[in-house]
Amino acid sequence: MKRGTITREIVIDQALKNVSESGFDHLTYNGLARTIGIQPQSMYRYVANINDVKSGVIAEYITRLNDNINEKLGDDSGKKALHNFAEYFISYTKDGIPFTEMISGLINYRKEELVEKALDKLRQGPISNIGLLTSDAEMIEKNSQLYLDFIIGNLSFLTMQVDDVDKNKRLFLANIDRIIDLFE
Hints:
mainly alpha, Tetracycline Repressor, domain 2, 8 helices
């Protein structure tokens, strides 16, 4: 690839592809440079270091997840939006970066500014819809945290269980509906 055509976005996109195929443990600065077709010392023009790359991958993944969910939700609101948000969330995480890798990345890079911004945007959808259901304004943030913690926690659990994926998904969605009913 010619130097003038490379951007930070291209570097992060390639890193996201590499992580989807091999995981974070196999993502290296030198390997990424080789994949892109540039010298490792030229990478500094686009990213500061491997931590910048990895946090960029996490932020980009979350941004794409959020964009995908919002596109599919359309005009849905309230309970329907929250149910569908959870379903779209788990559907999206079946492709690309393995969810266990994503959790590991979030643990390591959640304090990075780009990751924090992407997470904040992801939280806004549930917060606004939970706000439509929750009469106590002080509970909106707590309910949102419960909702997202449940989704992420169950995804971690579901990722480890491969025996009956359809049954697990039905159980997950039934439980998400039970949680949504608690918000009223």
